[in-house]
């Protein structure tokens, strides 16, 4: 009782697999929805209500949906799921006039949080959450000033938990900063990713390439370039590194 599932682990509780003797997909969907309604899980939030709403959709029952269906319907499905008797309710936060609460969009561990009184522009980093060994940045929706921090680094939070309270500073000036965002402005995080990818290319490893050529040898990328058509080579996991941090710096 009272145990919270750590976001460091897969929170899967059960799988529901339904089977019918006929060929009606709609009947299989209805059977799955009935099975979900028979679940009784207490003490921890689940997505049962969301799944039931999803299986109640006529398009899902017909089997004619696109891969973007869930993304397009998720806001409505989530709102409908909240009306279920056992739907998870988010914690209330006492707010003063003008204040808003930033809530966790997923369960995770707080890695970093902006100090109280910090002023940020739109898209500024407010909170960093870690879940399943991946970090997620919660950005400022507008120019704002943090007022009160409700969590601290190392704390585990659930989806919907309040993280901090902020006040939009753009409201004071009478104009939202989101209206003046330059969509062509390079993002710092994307620039960092591009720079890391550049370091994996021959042009980003001049010393290593020169050493290779001095030995009358070619680089792996030069060999690949002779084997495939220009522009046809697709590389996955270029930023993966070998487990050799104890023997050499990460940059090498």
Automatic annotation (TrEMBL):
Is Ligase among the key words of this record?
Answer: yes
Task: Give the E.C. number(s).
Answer: 6.3.4.14
Which Gene3D superfamilies does this entry report, sorted A to Z? 2-enoyl-CoA Hydratase, Chain A, domain 1, 2.40.50.100, ATP-grasp fold, B domain
| A Pfam family hit | Biotin_carb_C
Main EC class the enzyme belongs to? ligase
Q: Does the keyword Ligase apply?
A: yes
Q: Which residues form the Biotin carboxylation domain?
A: 1-75
What are the record keywords, sorted?
Answer: ATP-binding, Biotin, Ligase, Nucleotide-binding
Q: Which InterPro entries match?
A: Biotin_carboxylase_complex, Biotin_carboxylation_dom, Biotin_COase_C, Biotin_lipoyl, ClpP/crotonase-like_dom_sf, Rudment_hybrid_motif, Single_hybrid_motif
Offer an example of a GO molecular function term for this protein: ATP binding
Q: What is the protein name stated in its UniProt record?
A: biotin carboxylase
Species name for this entry? Mycobacterium kansasii
């Amino acid at each position: 009782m009272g145990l919270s599932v750590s976001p460091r682990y897969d929170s899967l509780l059960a799988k529901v697999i339904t089977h019918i003797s006929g060929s009606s997909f709609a009947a299989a969907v209805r059977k799955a929805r009935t099975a979900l309604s028979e679940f009784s899980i207490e003490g921890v939030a689940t997505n049962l209500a969301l799944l039931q709403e999803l299986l109640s959709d006529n398009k899902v029952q017909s089997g004619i949906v696109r891969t973007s269906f869930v993304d397009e319907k998720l806001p409505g499905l989530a709102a409908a799921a909240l009306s279920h008797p056992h739907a998870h309710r988010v914690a209330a936060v006492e707010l003063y006039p003008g204040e808003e609460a930033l809530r966790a969009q997923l369960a995770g561990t707080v890695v970093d949080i902006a100090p109280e009184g910090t002023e940020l522009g739109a898209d500024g980093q407010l909170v960093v959450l870690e879940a399943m060994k991946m970090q997620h940045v919660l950005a400022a929706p507008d120019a704002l000033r943090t007022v009160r921090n409700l969590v601290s680094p190392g704390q585990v939070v659930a989806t919907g938990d309040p993280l901090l309270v902020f006040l939009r500073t753009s409201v004071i000036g009478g104009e939202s900063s989101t209206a003046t965002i330059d969509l062509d402005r390079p993002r710092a995080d994307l620039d960092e990713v591009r720079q890391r990818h550049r370091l994996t290319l021959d042009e980003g490893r001049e010393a290593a390439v020169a050493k290779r050529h001095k030995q009358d040898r070619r680089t792996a990328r030069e060999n690949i370039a002779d084997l495939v058509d220009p522009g046809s080579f697709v590389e996955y996991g270029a930023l993966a590194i070998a487990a050799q941090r104890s023997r050499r710096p990460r940059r090498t």
